[in-house]
Amino acid sequence: MNIHGKPHRSIEAEHATRTARIIDQTLLPHLVEWRELQTMEDAAEAIRVMRVRGAPLIGATAAFGLYFALRDDATDGALQKAYDVLHATRPTAINLRWALDRVKRAVAGRNVGERAEAAWQEALAICEADVVTNHAIGRHGLELFRAIHEKKGDAAATLNVMTHCNAGWLATVDWGTAISPIYQAHDAGMKVHVWVSETRPRGQGASLTAFELKEHGVPHTLIVDNNAGHLLQRGLVDVVIVGTDRVTAHGDVANKIGTYLKALAARAHGVPFYVATPVSTIDWTITDGIRDIPIEQRSAREVTHMPGVNAAGGREEVLITPEGTQARNDGFDVTPGELVTALVTEHGVFPATARALQELQAALQASSAPDIF
């Protein structure tokens, strides 16, 4: 996708130096700064402090991190140690474990001297596959958008889409998941407008989704999180689409905190609520999202303080609560599958039910796609 008119990906391999570079998303939208990842510790720190975020991008970054570790020490012990360090950085996103397992399988059984090269190639393959996957998700989502738009009965009408958090190209290697069909609809000439919720406390909607949509020229309006139900109630939203960090085998969805409330409001007002997800984000080992998905507990400071840019152009953080206020900061919530209209994957659109996902899993296994599991 584009930054200031130039095409980029959120993580880019530097083949000459065998490093990778990322956009430091903690500085967006006011500053676009690239950071080079050279070591496993660099990758782990970038994931932990959210210089990179979004389940697919976390997975891709972790894959490069495992390569860096194996480049320095490719023994079994070092491999497992690096795996454990990277896996512990973010507990909710399943793509982290999925990508690490892919790299681990790619080097298994190889001589120590061959492991680093195999890991590098696998990290590159994960990135390329992510781009193809997200474009396919966008194509399937675009068909849903077209069907909803046709029901409006006016080809010139605007399709009003609501999203939450950031599920665009900044959350993946390119295209994004929930934002991919928005980009493709816009590029196809459909009049699309996006309601972007701010996504407190870290403001991923305000700082990241709004940044992306502006760069691509997609009309959008930023709203405070608590405005979502009001807009749905007044008929100002045609469809809600969000991404996810983990989907259970029964269709429950973990996404950024605040997603569940949007799903409830969408159901109350008859608005379709779609979840865009690569199949790699489905955790086939669990069935009850509320019981089984670990919810990341983040720093209370993210709630009690607000970062921004002052009048002089400098970055600063200010306290917005009484001194010493206690705060709880759940990073995610779980939306039950019964509230999800459908899951939009690279393989098509599926009901968020145990039966539909079992059929999908069987079809994938029959097609020899072991890297999905």
Automatic annotation (TrEMBL):
Pathway where this protein functions: Amino-acid biosynthesis; L-methionine biosynthesis via salvage pathway; L-methionine from S-methyl-5-thio-alpha-D-ribose 1-phosphate: step 1/6
Active-site residue numbers: 245 (proton donor)
Record keywords, A-Z: Amino-acid biosynthesis, Isomerase, Methionine biosynthesis
Single annotated GO MF: S-methyl-5-thioribose-1-phosphate isomerase activity
Documented EC number(s): 5.3.1.23
Known catalytic reactions: 5-(methylsulfanyl)-alpha-D-ribose 1-phosphate = 5-(methylsulfanyl)-D-ribulose 1-phosphate
Pfam families linked: IF-2B
Enzyme class: isomerase
Residues noted as binding substrate in the record, renumbered to the chain: 53-55, 90, 204, 255-256
Site positions per UniProt: Transition state stabilizer: 165
Similarity section: Belongs to the EIF-2B alpha/beta/delta subunits family. MtnA subfamily.
Function: Catalyzes the interconversion of methylthioribose-1-phosphate (MTR-1-P) into methylthioribulose-1-phosphate (MTRu-1-P).
Name of the featured protein: Methylthioribose-1-phosphate isomerase
Species assigned in the record: Prosthecobacter fluviatilis
